[in-house]
Amino acid sequence: MEWADELAARVSGPQVVNDSKTPSGTVHVGSLRGPVILDVITRALREAGHATTLLYGVDDLDAMDAQALLTPDAVDRYMGVPLAHIPDQVADGHASYARHHAGIFIDLFADLGIHPDRYYWMSDIYPTGAMDGYIRTALDRAHVVREAYKRVSKVQHPDTWHPVLVICESCGKVGTTIVTKWDGERVFYECRPELVTWARGCGNSGWVAPFGGRAKLPWNLEWAAQWSHFGVTIEPNGKDLATAGGSRDRSEAIAREVFEREPPLNVPYEFLNIGGKKMSTSKGRGAAAHRMVEVVPAEQLRMLFLRPRPNQAIEFDPEGTDAVPRLFDEFDRLADATAGREVKGELPPGFAKVFGYSLLDPHADVAAEAARFRPAFSHLALLAQIPGVDVAARVREEKGADLDAAEQVTLDARLRAAAAWLADYAPERSRMAVRDELPAEAAALDAEQRAFLAALADAVGGAGVPAPSGGDAWQGAIFATATSLALAPGRAFGALYLAFLGRPNGPRAGWLLASLDAAFVVARLRAAAGGPTLDVGGAA
Ligand SMILES: [Zn+2]
Ligand SMILES: [Zn+2]
Q1: Ligand 1 centroid vs 319 CA: distance in angstroms?
Q2: In what order do the strands lie in the sheet with 118-121?
Q3: Which residues contact 158 (CB under 8 A, 6 or more apart)?
Q4: Would the pTM of this model clear 0.90, i.e. be above it?
């Protein structure tokens, strides 16, 4: 996490951190990386004593364009129309298509501990006249803009091209218009049928004063105008915009040469790849941000984004894998390490910071939070599948004390996530049902496996022997018994799965057995072994 603190040490004076998004449709979970990074930068700046304002904007006068076609939400008849002027297709109370999709996305922020000081909507800003000065400057300096585009991005606009997009007075589209003249007060625009491939203009043309919301700046100029208007000092952006000669370079040149202001500091960040592929705004198999937060709670999602440096891509493949349980395990490992408990494996640099920044409350007592009891996700996913188990009681037992209020909240959140994971993402091997009766499949057990099951029954349920307490203790008993019989662990676990689940594989066996009533376990072990009187040759 040094990068955020280094950034905070590098700047001076009050800071304005900004990001904005075009609400072209359903938003992919990877799009939350930006807001999480923004939030961490803001926290680091404030911790370093800089007065800091966090802004989040919605570029909702942008046209529904080719980008929207990448989502499942694009509406054919509105291609080219400003997103803010398209009706909400879902009709669930939002004022527009833009408010619907941006709303669903922004609603996630508070739950993720992200609290911008101000949200702004460009469809609100333009009508106030706040952009008029920038529109005028851009038109007066159209030749400078054309020159910058040509030099930075090798984009050659005709000499008559002017950097403003009029919202066609006839058809309402903004993606199909081009301005070719500027007389100092009004522009001449044409709404051309063939200007772009993804929308068709109506052929209208005329002179109009491009102020007060009747026109907008093209994206690169709008971005630079936002920097000037809000006094932005830091603005991270996704790697796709940060390529040489790309969008960021263009906007930085515009900021310097047209609006005469130094652009903000950039913190380019890489993508979140789901299943090895870069996922843009959607097309995800359940990768929509508002769906993913159901299975990955806020703190774990923050950690997913924060553990690597911003310039590292993140591979996350939650479907049919243990990626989600592993994320919880890693979170708990960082908590343990932060609390000073011994952990296995290498720790990321600044792991306590990663843990602290993953917490929702910026003022949380990190040491106290790290020390809290957290039930293992995999264990909960297991318990959730066993009928009749009092999960809360089992978790209390595991902790050895009552849960405090915060721990109870964690338990509830993890149980909800476990249910969502089992329903939509878990691999088949993690789904299981403990059979009420000895499964017929247990007939496949060989003599060595039967001897192992009998020995385990003695080890955990013999006269005067207390049953192991907790998954680790059960796991230890399984290993010790297998070792004493020189039985390979794989065959030992296989025997347990056949005896309890009627299949050759399953979740961590120690946790499975710990989840069940001990007397039931012993009875089942004996039944599967072939009977309570089988001579096990003094094992255990
Ligand atoms: Zn809606
Ligand atoms: Zn038109």
Answers
A1: 28
A2: 15-21, 52-58, 118-121
A3: none
A4: no
